[in-house]
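Hi P.,

Sorry for the delay on this. The queue was packed all week, but I finally got your sequence through. Input first:
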Amino acid sequence: MKKVAIVTGASRGIGRAVAKRLARDSFAVVVNYLSNVDEAEGVVAEIKGIGGDAVAVKADVSSPADVERLFNETSTKFGSVDVVVHNSGIMPLSPIGKNNFDLFDKVISTNLRGAFLVLAQAAQHLASGGRIIAFSSSVLAKSFPTYGPYIASKAGVEGLVHVLANELRGRNVTVNAVAPGPVATELFLKGKSEEQIAELSKMPPLERLAQPEDIARVVSFLAGPDGAWVNSQVLRANGGFAY
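Then the structure:
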């Protein structure tokens, strides 16, 4: 029987690359999305095109009812949940001094509340051998101006990962985070000038932006047999951008 992976925010960017990589690793994949059904179904079609098994499920990760339904539909469709990759996130930027409460609340709701809800359901559904992988960010080490709400949310995600790993003691379920540096995705590139992108590309010693597939390979390692002894860690997959 195929193992089953849920990937949140899997219709594009890093999530899309992760979903496709896990399908190549022989997982049946639940492609979670919020609004773009065409892109999500496109991922499903690509996975089925290489002989894999996938289904798209719409769910808002900040909604307890939606997250519960996402896991229940996965269990109904495939019979189990073995790996959960929580990738969904937003990154609007604003200086702290602007007092932009609405933006802050939106980022925390999606990035941190969403992580809490997804990790809570994963803890309830995963059996022995399960893997929980959340996404943080290597920008935590840089403290760039305007990144306050985003960094606050991702710092919270890292805290949840360490606590949940301890709470699942004895169950043989690992809980880790992946913290990419700059990745050439629509989310990251949006609003940045060519000069800013070029500057960020030069920051890692490898002198390039990551591609989504670079990050998907790290997730594949954590989700696969070789990652079984890695637990309660934050893997800073950033080409040396920050450490």
